Amino acid sequence: MAANYRYWCGECHHRTSWRTEAEGADEQVRHYARSHLGIPVGGRVEVRDKTGGGGGGCLAVVGVLFLLVVLTPSCQHKAESQSRGPAFNLQVVVPVAD
Fold first, then answer.
1. What is the H or E stretch that residue 6 is in?
2. Quick check: 14 and 8 in contact, CB under 8 A?
3. Is residue 30 a part of any domain in this protein?
4. The pTM is what?
5. Phi/psi of residue 44, each to 5°?
6. Maximum C-alpha span of the chain
7. Residue 58 in domain
8. Among 17, 22, 55, 90, fewest CB within 10 Å belongs to which?
9. How many Cβ atoms are within 10 Å of 25's Cβ, its own excluded?
10. Exposure string over 66-87, b if 16+ CB within 10 A, otherwise e
11. What is the pLDDT along the chain (98 residues), one digit of tens a residue?
């Protein structure tokens, strides 16, 4: 069975690790018996998305932004150098005989 459930305590900041539904519920009951004696078990259950495709879209956006940051200055430099003419100054020195 997949560990797709995490139980959060309703009284404090305790949470279980990712477990099966039954294991998480048992751990939550034990936590209440240890830490909140006499209070009915409460809190919430977090269910992990089973598709497993998280992060791919964000990674693509970060990659595109990185390329824009790298390529934009180089394109601007190339455009400026073409509008001014060649980026080098060639000087020809001819020796003169005495």
1. strand 5-8
2. yes
3. yes
4. 0.50
5. -140, 165
6. 112
7. no
8. 90
9. 16
10. eeeeeeeeeeeeeeeeeeeeee
11. 678 999 999 999 999 999 999 999 999 999 999 999 999 999 999 998 876 555 667 888 888 888 888 887 777 666 666 666 555 666 777 778 76
Q: Residue 71: its pLDDT value, please?
A: 80
CA distance 94 to 92: 6
Answer whether 24's CB lies under 8 Å from 62's CB: no
d(CA 19, CA 16): 8
Q: Please indicate, yes or no, if residue 54 is contained in any of the structural domains.
A: no
Domain assignment present for residue 70? The answer is no
Full residue range of the structural domain in which residue 23 is found: 5-47
